[in-house]
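Contributing new records

If you add data, match the layout below exactly. Sequence lines come first and carry their own label; structure lines follow with theirs. Keep one chain per record. Anything else will be rejected by the validation script.
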Amino acid sequence: GYWTALKAFSSAKFMSTGKSKKLLPAKSLSTPKPKPFFVRKIKNK
């Protein structure tokens, strides 16, 4: 359950940041905002 959700989240994040990766590679790699929210979501489950 956890790894499947994490994998889906990672692929979704990759798809959404794919376009901006060419312009801002460093920023897309180190985005601190989505991770805490995702972890919080799993902990609530």
